[in-house]
Write a structure and sequence with these properties.
alpha+beta; 10 strands; about 575 residues
Length: about 575
């Protein structure tokens, strides 16, 4: 009762009920791939919850501390306060190791979910107009997630993370002219400085999470404003969204996913050991550990540093060290290409139309080939980050394996990209519905150049195979100054009317083709307007129906009032 009155009082003053009803009625597609972004969101929530707990016990300081705790090999050892508090958190704080390892696993899954979601958006063309800004926000979140993951990885001040931090500092210092100044500005002095752990702590706990929360809010607000994209299918057009309403079906499904994400993260944190810093020991500038591999999301940078030859050049009298090209240039070019891709594709294809319906990856072979080539390239770099472990497992010299990986990183992406391009073109041109149905004839036909006569049509829209559908057709007709369309299946006796009128026959045909790909369309005369007698009868019938409904509502209210006064029996003592 109290909450009901409070809600009514708030609604009387703020008028929130119309906005709430509109928000709860929003429709979301039912395809599983749209849940990847939610996995990233819920992993971020888990990061915040576990991070708050860890902040209560972590001491972000480089000052000397004598460790006294349950881990006997380090008892009485002088370490940094950050390292001592991390070991104490893992061994002496109740549930500390569980929360710390869950936090680390949540960071790995957070970055992985963002990356997989970004790959899905790329291959389906969800970055096209009007969602270019949302793509830029997503790429920025990926960049911030990488940076925040690395600062969190480096804060415990153990030997492994200190070695990775030393590598990053060397990469920054390799930037000509300004590298040394940037490193000193970020660390507060020369490496290792007394200010680097407190600065990483502020960046990891306050600055980057605040920006991520703002970007997530903007990302969700743009989705609500622009509506959700969807895959083509029956009844789906550029002007509607087919799926489940936010409440109750989608909300319950999303809540279940949130609980599953938390369950998996805490299961990993409790059962799978990760980053045991007490085994690595405290960081010492003169010491290193081998093998030493970073987390997977920055392993591509470590692999690039290992594969790139030790070439140093001079430009205008300034030395450009070898780490500059694999460390700075590769990363900069990668994210610059990600930011610019929507505009590059729009310039190459000339497609400036807004898109609500997504593409199948096969519909754009060039995009498919470029994406597979990039994923293969960075996959080889990630494998190269563990070349010393692979050499030990395979029992081969590490330098021989390094030379092999140098060849593979140049050859394998080209082969994979070309193969993906040919397979996508074969699926697009042929009759095969899936990869397993492709034949050699389809692949040979895919290697033939496209017909220049239909190049313009192929650039405008994806080529879709026309299946054999007897009795199905799309009917178009003029209705005054606008055009309408409907889908008709005569054998099944089904007729579905398009829910929006357009200004021309071509727009109606395009909308119908997107909703029902591969079905022929034909222009037909529209239904004749009702006669004057019919219009009069409809008007009278509508007035009569309105009167009956009002009378029924009045009788129902009267009955409810009577029940409220007379229906309750007095309490018997």
């Amino acid at each position: 009762m109290i909450f009901d009155r409070l809600a009514r009082a708030m609604d009387d003053r703020l008028r929130l009920s119309p906005l709430t009803r509109r928000a709860l009625a929003k429709v979301f597609p039912d395809h599983w791939s749209f849940m990847l972004g939610e996995i990233a969101l819920y992993s971020f929530v888990a990061l915040i919850l576990t991070g708050i707990y860890l902040t209560l016990f972590f001491e972000a300081s480089s000052a000397d501390r004598v460790y006294h705790g349950s881990y006997a090999p380090l008892d009485g050892t002088t370490t940094s306060a950050a390292y001592a508090s991390t070991v104490r958190l893992s061994w002496d704080v109740r549930a500390g190791l569980l929360i710390r390892q869950t936090h680390h696993w949540a960071a790995l899954i957070f970055v992985a979910a963002i990356l997989v979601h970004l790959v899905r958006v790329f291959f389906t063309g969800a970055f096209r107009k009007p969602r270019e800004l949302n793509w830029l926000v997503g790429v920025t979140m990926l960049l911030l997630a990488l940076a925040n993951g690395f600062t969190g990885y480096s804060m415990p001040d153990d030997l492994l993370s200190g070695l990775g931090l030393r590598i990053i500092v060397s990469v920054v210092e390799s930037i000509p002219l300004v590298g040394s100044w940037l490193a000193a500005l970020g660390l507060g002095g020369e490496f290792p400085s007394d200010e680097m752990i407190p600065r990483m702590f502020v960046t990891h706990v306050l600055l980057v999470p605040a920006v991520l929360v703002a970007l997530v809010s903007v990302h969700l607000a743009m989705i609500v404003r622009q509506k959700h994209s969807q895959f083509p299918g029956p009844g789906r057009t550029e002007h509607n969204v087919v799926g489940s309403r936010l409440y109750p079906s989608y909300a319950l499904r999303s809540l279940a996913l949130f609980l599953w994400v938390l369950a998996v993260l805490f299961a990993l944190g409790g059962l799978v050991q990760i980053n045991p810093v007490w085994l690595y020991g405290p960081f010492a500038p003169a010491e290193s550990t081998s093998p030493a591999q970073p987390d997977w999301y920055v392993a591509w940078g470590d692999g690039a540093l290992r594969l790139f030859p030790a070439w140093e050049i001079h430009i205008a009298g300034h030395l450009v060290p070898a780490p500059f090209f694999p460390g700075v240039v590769l990363g900069g070019v990668t994210f610059l290409a990600l930011y610019a891709w929507p505009f590059i594709e729009r310039w190459c294809t000339g497609d400036r139309r807004p898109h609500q319906l997504l593409d199948r990856p096969r519909d754009h072979p060039v995009r498919m080939g470029v994406g597979v080539m990039a994923l293969t390239f960075f996959g080889v770099l990630v494998v190269a980050a563990g070349d010393d472990i692979l050499a030990r497992l395979l029992r081969v010299p590490v330098y021989d394996l390094l030379n092999l990986l140098r060849v593979l990183v140049l050859v394998l992406p080209v082969l994979a990209g070309a193969s993906a391009f040919l397979v996508a073109r074969a699926l697009r041109r042929g009759d095969a519905a899936r990869l397993g149905e492709l034949t050699r004839a389809d692949l040979r036909a895919a290697r033939q150049p496209s017909d220049p006569s239909d190049a313009e049509a192929m650039a405008d829209e994806p080529e879709l195979p026309a299946p054999d559908r007897p009795g199905e057709r799309i009917e178009l007709w003029p209705d005054g100054d606008v055009w309408r369309w409907r889908y008709r299946d005569e054998p099944a006796g089904v007729a579905i009317l398009g829910n929006r009128a357009v200004l021309s026959e071509q727009e109606a045909a395009d909308a119908a083709r997107l909703a029902y790909p591969g079905i022929d369309h034909v222009a037909v005369p529209g239904p004749p307007p009702p006669s004057r007698r019919v219009r009069t009868a409809l008007r009278r019938w509508g007035n009569a129906a309105l009167g009956v409904s009002l009378l029924t509502a009045a009788l129902r209210q009267r009955r409810d009032r009577q029940r409220g006064v007379d229906g309750d029996e007095p309490e018997r003592r």
